[in-house]
């Protein structure tokens, strides 16, 4: 399973979904799905925009965690 840390990062910086969407140009629905970890896919351009906005690496946003089925 891929764990998304955007909610933690946003919480630490006291950011709202609408703020991130406005500043990155990423659709608010996409940010919401990432925030709630319900996204099934994401465009690389969106990942790049998030990394640029948060000044972080991809590994800071996403983490692989083996599931119970592995």
Automatic annotation (TrEMBL):
UniProt xrefs under CDD domains: HTH_XRE
Entry-linked SMART domains: HTH_XRE (SM00530)
Transmembrane spans: none
Domain HTH cro/C1-type as annotated: residue spans: 6-61
InterPro entries: Cro/C1-type_HTH, Lambda_DNA-bd_dom_sf
MF-aspect GO terms: DNA binding
PROSITE patterns: HTH_CROC1 (PS50943)
Protein's name according to its UniProt entry: HTH cro/C1-type domain-containing protein
Species in which this protein is naturally found: Vreelandella aquamarina
